[in-house]
Specification:
Length: about 290
């Protein structure tokens, strides 16, 4: 029997409805949650992402500030924009769209954001809080969204072997750290794989929950998956497709058609992890605003 689809769009819609309700309550108390999305340069893909984030914020009843800066903006200028947003009372969340132009060091910019407004969860203070299990920080949106996907699809995680492919700071590492935490939505035994992993298949075959964030089209095939495993595909890869109008299509890191015959549950691409990332950004922003009232 083919795997059950984990419907990221439906789960994200539910999260966003909850966020909108929390935003309404905040507005009633005189606080409109505000999200600033800062983009430097005119990369078309980044423009699509920033517009989608601003639109989602508006749909949730939040104040949305879209800051577009020219590609030759200096690091000093960007840092002073971040400083201004850090002290702007209308702004509760700040997001710097990556990648930044070569003259700007992303780590320096991330460290400049007030951790209480770092709704992307990339500031070292928030990364550290997540790692030690403190709950008052922000967790980066993609791993946080995956945890919600698992919970909402009824996947019981305690005691399971969770294998994560990828160790980036934005997906793989925080994902692994979350799944090993001591709580009912985690408590997994976690293995992290990367390009130096010997015999990748021996690890993936042992996974009850397989989370793939490698950025390589369809590298996970059916023979690499344990029958009945839950498979979460984070990858977004554009590949040639003669049948589509644009000549390309979006595929994940998992060979969906073959793996769905083996797995028990699987996320599609698109429509799986992607919608959750924006939903969790909204959730973090509303929480940042709620925290100002405490
Ligand atoms: P990244 O920074 O390029 O990291 C990729 C990781 O995968 C690295 O740790 C790399 O290992 C590992 N890797 C690559 N090829 C591998 C292989 N053949 N076998 C084992 N490990 C391998 O990418 P990322 O930012 O984490 O993103 C991963 C994917 O998720 C991308 O397709 C990205 O577009 C997508 N993504 C989607 C969302 C969403 O919302 N849907 C959000 C974020 C990212 P090394 O460390 O050894 O190089």
């Amino acid at each position: 029997m083919p795997a059950e689809l984990i419907d990221g769009r439906a789960i994200a819609k539910k999260v966003r409805a909850e966020v909108a309700e929390r935003a309404r309550k905040l507005v009633a108390r005189g606080v409109r949650p505000g999200l600033a999305v800062v983009m430097v340069g005119d990369d078309p893909a980044s423009a699509v992402y920033t517009t989608a984030k601003a639109k989602a914020a508006e749909e949730a009843g939040m104040y949305s500030l879209n800051v577009r800066l020219p590609a030759d903006t200096s690091q000093a200028d960007l840092l002073s924009r971040v400083d201004a947003l850090n002290t702007d009372p209308k702004i509760h969340g700040i997001l710097i769209q990556m990648p930044l132009p070569a003259q700007i060091d992303p780590d320096t910019v991330i460290r400049r954001i007030n951790p209480a407004k770092d709704v992307d969860g990339f500031h070292p203070v928030n990364v550290g809080k997540m790692l030690i299990g403190e709950r008052d920080g922000f967790i980066s949106c993609t791993p946080a969204g995956i945890q919600v996907l698992l919970k909402e699809s009824g996947v019981k995680t305690p005691g399971k072997n969770c294998v994560v492919i990828g160790r980036s700071n934005i997906v793989g590492k925080p994902m692994a750290a979350l799944m090993m935490q001591n709580n009912e939505n985690a408590n997994c035994t976690v293995t992290v794989c990367h390009r130096h992993t010997a015999d990748l298949k021996s690890h993936t075959r042992a996974a009850d929950i397989l989370i793939v964030a490698a950025g390589r089209a369809r590298i996970v095939t059916a023979d690499m998956v344990k029958p009945g495993a839950v498979v979460i595909d984070v990858g977004t890869n554009r590949v040639a497709d003669a049948r589509s109008k644009s000549g390309t299509k979006l595929v994940g890191d998992v060979d969906f058609e073959s793996v769905r015959e083996v797995a028990s549950k699987i996320t599609p691409v698109p429509g799986g992890v992607g919608p959750m990332t924006i939903a969790m950004l909204m959730s973090n922003t509303v929480r940042a605003a709620e925290m100002t009232l405490r």
